Amino acid sequence: MSHDDLTPEEVAKILPPGAALGWGLAKPPQRGPKREMSIDLIVKKAVEIADKDGLPSVSMNRIASALGFTAMSLYRYIPSKDDLLILMQDAISDVPIPAERPPQEWRESMREYVMGTVGIFREHPWYGDIPILGIPITPNNLRIVDWALQSLRDMPLNDYEKMSIVLLLSGYARTYGMLQRDIDRAVQAGSSEEEFSGLNYSAALRNLIKPEQYPNLHPIVMSGAYTGENEDENTVGNDLDFGLERILDGIEQFLIRKTTSDATEHHK
Questions:
Q1: What range(s) does the HTH tetR-type domain occupy (predicted)?
Q2: Which structural domains are found in the chain, ordered by start?
């Protein structure tokens, strides 16, 4: 038997228990509550608690109490808190995938992927609080990766280049998604977007930032660009769109250079 022909039991042994549960490879518990309890129900309740009160509020005891069972009952379905976190991450990654666009609309496809990922961080603010421990290996997370690869399928790229572009886009989406999440949290806590951006401190900063100490920052502060004072006059658009467009420009230039290089090699 080759390494590609594993039985479900062998696959389950390779994966973390939480990932094996996500793929439906784990056996149901022999003892404990029947029908009333399920992995999906436990995960759904955990996500509800995290959405409402944050990740530190999620515990087997609290979930069990909310469902009317004991924590020991939950452990028969999900072995550990770490496995629960894996399943929670996968559950919130079950998002609608937009219809596939024509190949020439690859920029729009990538933009949809990035904005969809940012949306997950905003809808489930605790998502970014879970550290990245490795590559995606659960069903819905891998659907997200497959979505990201969709627009790259017919491009003249090797598999390494395709995955590197996916990592670039997902990294940008994660960074901006967590930033937007923090803005949302600050506003909910009583702050304002103006305070978060520093707009309220513009006059103070103009007095504090001296050209001899901050020769490069000084003109930016004085123009109002540092705190976004004149954004209505800014034709670039917001920071997320501007950064994403520059990333897409870079990918486009890479494709042009690679196509030209391949054509040159072909005619040698």
A1: 36-96
A2: 8-92 (1.10.10.60), 103-191+235-266 (1.10.357.10)
